[in-house]
Amino acid sequence: MASWNSVPLEITYEVFGWISFVSWSVSFYPQVILNFRRKRVIGLNFDFVILNLTKHSSYMIYNICLFFSPVIQKQYFEKYGFGQMIPVAANDVAFSIHAVLLTAITLFQIAIYERGSQKISKIAIGIVSAIWLAAAICFFVALPHHSWLWLINIFNSIQVFMTLIKYIPQAVMNFRRKSTDGFSIGNILLDFLGGCTSYGQMISQSIDQNSWVNFYGNIGKTLLSLVSIFFDLLFMCQHYLLYPNKKAVISCKLNKEGADPLLKSSDHPESENV
């Protein structure tokens, strides 16, 4: 296993990694706190949450296995070279475990708080069911030959796929409502910082090792950062540029009436079509 060539780059790698961990980890709390204060989850897309739970669960499996298993690490070195470094850091493991826990708490809030006519779509349920069925089949395929690196790369591919699609329901919902009310922008700002620093962490390691294996050897982490940044910019654009007045009007109406802030005409389409 390779070692660091530059102490400053190693420190930069660790600093970026833990900034990313703190940003991404804390990013879950604004939405949880917002749900708790409002005692309602209207405005938060439920498909986004259940897809996110599948995404972080698969990412946790990948990180834990590659970081702790000597057998899988050996298979990684045999594939990419013994001069390479494992592309999973301690902060990646800590983040993914924390992410699964907080996403599960958000899902629990959906179950107990007022949600209006919103519900998890059949499409999202079908996607999640198909994903875990495919993962179970892959496990039994890998078992005879102990192809564990191949198996965890399947989980990494799952988290890449889920990262690509998980933001779409919330973005579409915001567009249809012409509002981001009920969806925490604090979550997005912290997620954006986490994506930028995660990408910076990978660049630091690649410069030190004079190799870009770090990027395609852990394509999941690479795409996680890039896709997160793209959608975070989209959500910030929706919140600050496209629908700021709409958000203010809906919030004002909620304060005056103490009722569901969504118009009935926008409630039903989002639950049926998103």
Structure description:
It is built from 13 helices and no strands. It has helices at residues 7-26, 29-38, 46-68, 70-80, 90-112, 122-142, 148-166, 168-177, 185-209, 213-216, 219-242, 244-257, 264-273. With 274 residues, the chain is an all-alpha fold. It comes from Dipteronia sinensis. It is a multi-pass membrane protein.
- Order of helices and strands, N to C? HHHHHHHHHHHHH
Mean pLDDT: 84
Query: In angstroms, what is the radius of gyration?
Result: 20 Å
Low-confidence stretches: 247-274
The proportion of residues in beta strands is under 5%
Which structural category fits the helices and strands?
Answer: mainly alpha
Briefly, what is this?
The chain has helices spanning 7-26, 29-38, 46-68, 70-80, 90-112, 122-142, 148-166, 168-177, 185-209, 213-216, 219-242, 244-257, 264-273. Helix content is 78%, strand content 0%.
Highlighted features:
disordered C terminus, mainly alpha, single chain, 274 residues
Structural topology:
Elements: H1 7-26, H2 29-38, H3 46-68, H4 70-80, H5 90-112, H6 122-142, H7 148-166, H8 168-177, H9 185-209, H10 213-216, H11 219-242, H12 244-257, H13 264-273
Helix pairs in contact: 1-5, 1-9, 2-5, 3-4, 3-5, 3-6, 3-7, 6-7, 7-11, 8-13, 9-11
